[in-house]
Amino acid sequence: EEDVNEETILRTKRWIVILGDPGSGKTSFARWLVHHLAQTLLINGQYSTDYGLLRIPILIRIGEFAEILKEQPSLTLYDYIGKHKWMGKTILDNDSISLNYLSHALQDYIKQGQALIILDGLDEIPVSGQRSKIINIVENFVETYVQTPTGISAFDNPHLNRLFDNLSQSGGNQIIITSRIVGYHAAPLAGPS
Fold first, then answer.
1. Which segments constitute the NACHT domain (predicted)?
2. 142-179 residue pLDDT tens
3. Distance (Å, rounded) from C-alpha 53 to C-alpha 168?
4. Cα–Cα distance measured from residue 33 to residue 49, given in angstroms and rounded to the nearest whole number
5. Whole-Å CA distances, 136 to 78, 97, 140, 141, 178
6. Any residues with CB less than 8 A from the CB of 97 and at least 6 apart, and which?
7. Deepest in the core among 31, 42, 67, 69, taking most CB within 10 A?
């Protein structure tokens, strides 16, 4: 529970959960951050003096992932990336790129450790059985794709990542998860079982 700005978060935190009350601006912040980082990438390339090493921002609404998961129960978060929607609309504004091409491109950024994945609304899944499934899917995604270059995950000893992770220099994926305070404490991320 620190009071930090987005530059500090992006330079120093590989894994972060942003908690807030309903209407406190979590989604607005996530959308602003994606827009701001995309513009910064276009202007500066992969490095910014304010943010350090820049990553491709990928914003996903967990509620929309949960809806698709009802139809495709074996879908992983990784496979959903690039095919995801925002507020029911495809993230492409024209037909010049196929969803498969976009999905593969974003997945390549993830494989190369060059993505900032923002999962918005972790707590906004109404059915508790589905909530635990989503939590497990997110934990597995983080364990697999959001590690330090030396293989330390968010669920390992926190002292290890402070010793061996210089995020602004080492690269690798980052993840930001937003949630309501009460919803998160009812079902927090704890690591894959």
1. 14-125
2. 989 987 766 667 666 665 555 555 566 667 889 999 99
3. 6
4. 16
5. 13, 32, 6, 9, 16
6. none
7. 69
